[in-house]
Design goal:
By secondary structure, the chain is an alpha+beta fold. Helices cover 24% and strands 33% of the residues. Bound molecules: biotin (BTN).
């Protein structure tokens, strides 16, 4: 018997419900929508959205995992192929974070954005994004996880690196995951169209309006070590700008950030 967990084919394919009239590839259960999309990239089209009602071993940034208990989270991956503007690729995670913020706002939840691409409500994370790039094939898989109806006890029983929240906890009611998905796809399409038309500098400008780190001193942990300094926003390529203790302007593509109080 073929185990359903192998999930080679979607349970349903819905034409026109992806981005730009792409397909929605719906799975009842999948280990990881990003992993599936990357593995089946040849059969995927630009704009396809891989959506799992239950994602059992979701991948997060920096080799972490992503918790999506039962069917209470929104877990999907958008397939982007043959992107013509190279400068868009590094900023796609931020474009997706802006779209998630728009979607939350439509549902009366006010999120802010934490570099590189987390969506926060107050000091807790409500959504995460994992953009995986295969530059040889000119492919980006844009994975988005939103804590929709995730409960307090789900968070407590998981060992989370960062404290988390959900739409249910912040909104005080359950949300229809399917309509959150529809809203997110249309917000993402709009944000993607805007960056294609207006360029990447608009992303940094819009980000600045909702920037969770604005005005903060930070500690940044990256593969090259830890740096402390004053956060000065994003540049137009999506890099974090930091003024270090020696007054040098520094730029970072990746890492983990915390707010700190610097000694005077
Ligand atoms: C993060 O660490 O903040 C990024 C989390 C990204 C999770 C999403 S859920 C849908 C997609 N599939 C995955 O395996 N991961 C991403």
């Amino acid at each position: 018997m073929v185990s359903k967990e192998r999930a080679d084919t979607p349970d349903r394919i819905i034409e026109g419900e992806g981005l730009w009239e792409g397909r929605l590839l719906k799975f009842n259960r999948l280990k990881s929508t990003n992993a599936w999309a990357m593995h089946h990239i040849d059969s995927c089209r630009h704009g396809d959205v891989v959506w799992a009602i239950r994602q059992t071993t979701g991948r997060g940034r920096l080799s972490r995992s992503w918790l999506a208990p039962d069917d209470r989270g929104l877990t999907l991956s958008v397939v982007l192929k043959d992107l013509e503007q190279d400068e868009i690729v590094p900023i796609l995670g931020q474009v997706a974070a802006l779209a998630v913020r728009d979607t939350l706002k439509t549902h009366s939840i006010h999120g802010s954005l934490k570099w590189p691409n987390d969506v926060m409500v107050h000091d807790k994370k409500i959504a995460g994004i994992l953009a995986e790039v295969d530059s040889d094939r000119n492919v980006v898989i844009l994975g988005i996880g939103v804590n929709v109806n995730v409960r307090d006890d789900d968070m407590e029983s998981a060992h989370l690196v960062q404290s988390a929240t959900s739409m249910l906890i912040k909104g005080g009611r359950t949300f229809d995951i399917e309509s959150v998905r529809e809203c997110l796809i249309s917000d993402l399409e709009r944000r993607m169209n805007s960056v294609t038309l207006n360029g990447t500098s608009h992303v940094a400008d819009t980000w600045a309006r909702y920037d969770w780190l604005a005005g903060s001193s930070i500690e940044l942990h990256s593969s090259n070590g830890t740096v402390r300094g004053r956060y000065t926003g994003l540049d137009e390529r999506g890099r974090l700008r930091l003024l270090d203790g020696q007054g040098r302007k520094r730029f970072f593509w990746a890492g983990d950030v915390e707010k700190i109080v610097l000694d005077q």
